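Onboarding guide, step 5: your first structure request.
Type a short instruction followed by the sequence, for example:

Predict the 3D structure of this protein.
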Amino acid sequence: MLKKFFLVVCGSFVGVILALIFFTISSILISFAIFGSMANSKGGKIEKNSIMYVKLEGMLNERSSGGNNSLMSLMSNQGATQSLSTLIKGLKIAKEDENIKGLYLDCRGMASGMSSLYELREALKNFKASKKFIYAYGDEGILQSDYYLVSIADSIFLNPEGMVDVHGLASSTPYMKNLLDKVGVEMDVVRVGTFKSAVEPYILDHMSDANRLQQEHYLGSLWGVISDDIAKSRGIEKGKFDALTDSVMTTMSSKELIQNKLVDHLCYRTEMEDKLRALTDVEKDEDLKLVTAEELLEANDDPMGTGSKVIAVLYADGEIFSGTNNNGGPMPNMNNNVGIYSEDMAKTIRELRYNDDVKGLVLRVNSPGGSAFGSEEIWKALEDFKASGKPFVVSMSDYAASGGYYISSGAERIFAEPLTITGSIGIFGMIPNASNFINNTLGMNFEEVSTNTNAIAGAIYKPLTDQQRNALQQMVNRGYETFTGRCAQGRKVTQDSIKSIGEGRVWDAITAKQIGLVDEFGGLEAAVKWIAKKAKLGDNDYSVVDYPTLELSFMDMLSSMQKMKIENDMRQRMGMFYTYYEQLQAIMGRDKVLCIMEPVDISF
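The system replies with structure tokens like these:
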């Protein structure tokens, strides 16, 4: 017995020592990475005959994580991430810098929302106006998201054994009613809106006609923009390009790709680099002078202004939750998405309201919605900001739907890109009833003692009563009246007109502009310029400052990396079933009354 005790103690001691060693080594590696990053920072001016280099890989996020973005990607083994704001600023600098001779787009497969790609493509078009060259290269192949970007290039080069994959858009929505039935869980659902399909996966085993109609409409509109842009840039007749898209493009030979104007030249990477050397007067035995967007920003002033007056850009990125982030700071997931916590965001908005240096606010929205109460709390803080007399506009990114539109509705002007998804003005309540699973599968039973009829309501071990369900329906109805009322007030139209285009229906931004939900097409820069003009600020009078701050502490970074690692491992192990797990987990953690868009995966 004594021997066993000492073995356990020794084993525990060794475990602690090993954990400390691992922690120390991790700390040293992170320190080396930080100092290495600092040492590799070029600073100073850009060398002559340089080329701006954009590696299209990893995830395209709204913004970088305060300098820790690449480090977190390295340590968590998640692959590279890109910052949309950094790339756009870098392209703007490169356009004006006489030492930058052109742009090299290296296609390696970048994941992104469609509106973000559109905004980046517009920045590439703006760079192209400088008459500097834009060359693109693909080795193994050029995927559709990359191809949409590089179709703007002067020339597209492809490895002789490479392929091009352009296939159109498709959506997939997981329906899990049969799964819930098998485990003995039933969802008590109440909603307002024929098209409010976020509840469908839990109560149906197939897509409703209304949901299919709205998805067909907005997917068709989105693909219309994308295919038109590609066909026009490549000089291909639209009907012919549609036929090429339907033909399983990946099976085309290199010769067919050139014949159909999908690529311009075939070469290996070393040959591609030699072509770039010839364009920039670099000897064959010398390295190309490739400069990243980050390096351009380090060597130049921010192209969005350097004045003392501030235009605040507040990022509302992710699902909306009521309350505060109890982690004590932003904790990005693998998509660099920290979520929107209503109390935290309302506090930031109040600080911006009373900050005399802040002359206007751009709310950058990339959200499918979430908590109805959280959305209302953020809406109220924004209304108070408007009362200060400072201008307030919204710039929509990939999604600004349901609660994402709720918090946008009061803006003086709403900007979106043609590939933005918005609308979904609707609301629902959903409570899981796991009585069958608990009683029959697990063999458990709950006994209650209560003083009043509804002292326990919404417990997962029993269904809602008619009275309780009616009460939830009244809550949802009241929430819908509030939601549509806020939209009507912000858009300066009648509530009935909002209801006629509401019903939970998801809209593409082109249609949304036609029906009055969006004012103007344009990206973040267009929204900032509108604020500057409204606040009567000259080009050199202001600077653009991003909120909230995303600089992570050392411990936050370690915790976030652990979370990202666990999430990535689960995704790899569970495959397509991770989506089901993620949604079931979310049900338990969300508010009872929600305004959130349906869980649709759009394959791009």
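Each response can be followed by summary notes, for example: Confidence is low (pLDDT under 50) at residues 1-43, 66-70, 72-78, 328-336.
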